[in-house]
Amino acid sequence: MHIHNLRASKSQQQSMQQELIDKYGRKLDYLRLSVTDRCNFRCYYCMPEEGMNFVQREDLLTYEELDYLTKIFVNLGVKKIRITGGEPFVRKGIIDFIELLSNNKGLKEVTLTSNGSISKAQIRKLAKFGVNKINISLDSLDRKRFHEITRRDKFDEVMACIIELLDQNFIVKLNCVIDGKKNIEDIVPFIKLTEKHPLSVRFLEEMPFNGTDKFEVPEWNYKALYNYIEAQFPGIQKITDESNSTSVNYKVPGYMGSFGIIPAFSRTFCGTCNRIRLSATGELRTCLYGPPVSNLRDVLRSGAGEEALKTAILLAVAGKEKDGFEAEKQIPDGSKESMSFLGG
Questions:
Q1: What ranges does the record list as Basic and acidic residues composition bias (predicted)?
Q2: Does the pLDDT of residue 15 top 80, yes or no?
Q3: In this structure, what are the phi and psi dihedrals at residue 304, rounded to the nearest 5 degrees?
Q4: Can you say whether the dihedral through the CA atoms of 63, 69, 74, 79 is positive or negative?
Q5: What are the tens digits of pLDDT across the range 58-109?
Q6: pTM of the predicted model as reported, rounded to 2 decimal places
Q7: Closest among 287, 290, 246 to 269, alpha carbons compared
Q8: Domain ranges of the chain
Q9: Terminal-to-terminal C-alpha distance of the chain
Q10: I need a surface site. Which of 11, 66, 128, 312 has the fewest CB within 10 A?
């Protein structure tokens, strides 16, 4: 598809004045945009070690298509875009695409989620673009446990990335998925890490998106996590949560950073959800736990114009379920895809 076919005319852009508000009054102004399903790690809770059927290059949305679609989302009121994967930085050309997004005046914020596979040169380019908020997925501060969880010996590289981000004054959040059989010993060290570093550590309940049909309801839910942390740090203080936050946030008095707990499986935050998701292959989801409700790639490549794409997005939002439990019921066989494909 040629660029001149993708560019929105000024009159068409001006006509897109609707906002993405669902039937429960929730305004969806946050797009999570997956740019690839590929990853250089093999975290056990995200995908199997072998046998992943990654999508073919021609099935991915091109950067040109991604740029075109994101402009439509922005015209429909999206103010924040988070780039996810897979691992975004394994896709060639990602830095140029992030620069393109950062130049969109309608966006208030462009953020990223990565496993820490970001070079110093890339970090400095991101800072130059004004993209200074990054979430790093890190499930252990112990080299051996890190290797067991990720199935890769990349601990030193990830820690070096985090240090460089802090040195360059990025706002850094560390996302740690808690498994009672894997990394409970890391909870206290993670919180202690916030003593002298302005980090936000968030502990997540495990979710059923590991690319297999095997999953057990996590015993270490948000209540168990809070009780464990409070027993270790009895003086913790509740701090103000950001608007539409998925985490409930705290800090230890005197510590530079903070920590939060995300009830990712319990889904207690659904009532204030402001997210919509687009996969690397164009699948549009209004809930992480639900099925795709449209494929914008297919609509786009069929030759449909902006109005058809806008209609598809508005219809998806109109059908958004009340919460993740209701959305999950819409999946006929109850199957869950790999988190690397969904983008988190």
A1: 325-336
A2: no
A3: -65, 150
A4: negative
A5: 999 999 999 999 999 999 999 999 999 999 999 999 999 999 999 999 999 9
A6: 0.90
A7: 246
A8: 3-342
A9: 29
A10: 11
C-alpha distances in angstroms, 198 versus 100, 148, 233, 243, 267?
A: 29, 27, 18, 20, 27
Question: What is the residue whose two structure tokens read 């795709």?
Answer: 292
- Residue 172 contacts residue 166 (beta carbons within 8 Å): yes
Given the structure tokens 């991101």, which residue do they identify?
126
Helix/strand/coil (H/E/C) assignment for every residue in the chain: CCHHHHCCCHHHHHHCCCCCECCCCCECCEEEEECCCCCCCCCCCCCCCCCCCCCCHHHCCCHHHHHHHHHHHHHCCCCEEEEECCCHHHCCCHHHHHHHHHCCCCCCEEEEEECCCCCHHHHHHHHHHCCCEEEEECCCCCHHHHHHHHCCCCHHHHHHHHHHHHHCCCEEEEEEEECCCCCHHHHHHHHHHCCCCCCEEEEEECCCCCCCCCCCCCCCCHHHHHHHHHHHCCCCEECCCCCCCCCEEEECCCCCCEEEEECCCCCCCHHHCCEEEECCCCEEECCCCCCCCEEHHHHHHCCCCHHHHHHHHHHHHHCCCCCHHHHHCCCCCCCCCCHHHHCC
Task: Write out pLDDT tens, residues 117-173.
Answer: 999 999 999 999 999 999 999 999 999 999 999 999 999 999 999 999 999 999 999
Tell me which of 3.30.230.10, 3.40.1190.10, 3.40.50.800, 3.20.20.70 is the CATH number of domain 3-342: 3.20.20.70
Q: What is the pLDDT at residue 3?
A: 41
Burial of 335 (C-beta count, 10 Å sphere; 0-12/13-18/19+): exposed
Q: Between 155-167 and 143-150, two packed helices, what is the crossing angle to 10 degrees? A: 110
The pLDDT tens digits for 38-48 are 999 999 888 88
